[in-house]
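**Protein fold record**
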Amino acid sequence: MVMMKHPFLSFTLLLIVFFSSTTTLAQKSPAPAPSTDTAPTDIIRILKKAGGFTTLIRLLQTTQVSTQINSQLLNSNGGLTLFAPNDNSFSSLKPGFLNSLSDEQKNKLIQFHLLPTFVSMSNFDTLSNPVRTQAGDDPYRLGLNVTSSGNQVNMTTGIVNVTVGGTVYTDHQLAVYQVDKVLLPRDFFVAKPPAPAPAPEKTKSSKKKSSDSDGGSCRRR
């Protein structure tokens, strides 16, 4: 007696073999390597994402300090720290203050909010006062005095007293901290001492008299 093969059974066995082979190949295929590409740090993108820093963003762009910050982060290992006043901080300034500043002063104002090193919230107590900013080396006119206790950080410029409100961004190379006031340097408000007057030069007539006097004394000898 000849038994006929059931066509449905043969088809089922074929499907089992096919899917088994496919699963085996999938398991042997290497998984794609994770992408290691990371976008460079962009201070404007960071502040836009945080929100509430419209005036600071505009100043960073018009002074081109934003480009400088991004370049420094790419080309230095020391990092940077930015104290970021929010829009309410700028609104509390005297009306017309920003418009009264020259382009050079606006640049200096933003540089005054930058420290040339990365400082974590827990390391402010290691700084030596007055703290140097990127606005310049004059400790009296362009320095900050910082006091900290735990996570409470306060600063004084000699014009305003400022409190660090919290961390906006940190990646161990760039730290951005929100502050409750715009940091105003003494340099904008304290008159600079007058430059020393140059030493008076001898006139030609006095030089001639002196020469004649020396010659006369020589002849008398």
In short: Residues 94 and 100 are 10 Å apart (CA to CA). The domain at 43-121+165-183 is CATH 2.30.180.10 (FAS1 domain). The two ends are 160 Å apart (CA to CA).
